[in-house]
Amino acid sequence: MDFLSLYAESAKTALGFFWKAGWAFVLGYFVSGMIQAFVPKGKLTQYMGEANLKSISLSTFFGAASSSCSFAALAAARALIKKGAHFIAGVAFMFASTNLVIELGILILIFLGWQYLVAEIIGGLVLITISSVLIKLTYPEDWLKAAREKVESAGSDLEEDFDWKKRIKSKEGWRLVGHKFVNDWKMAWEDILIGFTIAGFVAVLVPESFWSGLFLADAQNLPGWLVAIENALIAPFVAAATFIGSMGNIPLATVLNENGVLFAGIMGFIYSDLMVPPLVHINAKYYGWRVALYIAGIMYVSIVATALILNGLFSLLGIVPESARVVSEITQFKIDYTFWMNIGFTVIAGVLVWLHKKYMQSHEMKMMEMESGGKIKTIAVSLFILINVLGLSAFVFIQLF
Description:
Elements: H1 3-38, H2 41-48, H3 53-64, H4 70-82, H5 87-99, H6 102-111, H7 114-138, H8 141-153, H9 164-168, H10 171-205, H11 208-214, H12 224-242, H13 249-258, H14 263-271, H15 277-287, H16 289-317, H17 337-363, H18 374-400
């Protein structure tokens, strides 16, 4: 393919990633908005305010019942922490909402097979357990206290003491949900745009031989256990370089699997959706860079350990998953469940934006200026928008002529 064709295909692939994950973004931020609007701090603290088994278990359950969108998971976890949840519970929620949700399970089943789905569920629970233990052992109390104060001081919330049953039945309560939904989107849309655009171009332009060499797929003289360790150690960095969240990394995980990457590397890659730079940057907005990097470090160690434990356990039992499925149609636009889900959640998003406008009118407020990355990021966002527009225009031109 010539340069113009590759460029056009890259832009189309980037748009395909947006298309595939669009409805999940709306769902995740909708859940986040409801948590912020309807959950009183005292009620939440009663169930998730301690670093015990009950709190972590409930956080895992709530996470699995929420969103598969990595960006929305961070917003929802921040909402929980702001309402009084323990920090360990917040991290457990993040992992559960990106690894134990139904939507992600469906994608894994379609693109990798049921064996990987079973591994994902078991590994998700192991991952939460390991990260919880690590945070307990290394708990930087002063850092996390300062992070909580930063979260609690961000934005202007209504009173904490309220009857959630009355609020959830009121127009004002749902207008508040819309307001929270829009504000969460304003905080993350730039990172989503940059990340998914890079993902589309990486998926098209990086040759398959690169993945095989990076993960030692052709290293015949090295023992399998050493290659497994290398795969597990490097997989999170590869995931971070792709800039893709949980809804986008399953197709690339299939590409890795097709190119001989071991089971440990595949699982390490899948679990690393929260390690991508845009997500670390969003955590820095929420908690400060010190705590954001601490979270990333905990995640990295937990992910590597979980991948190796799964690889060892499944190898011992002789049930290491293998998949020969292809994912060439992942970014195709067709009439399937994604099409209908996107239509449905576009309507929901429109309603939430309308509720936000009603909230602003009733409170006589102007739209708050959300934190940004400064002039450099503004230029980068504009550049990425231009890249996508030109690329999609090239794709249309090639199709027509």
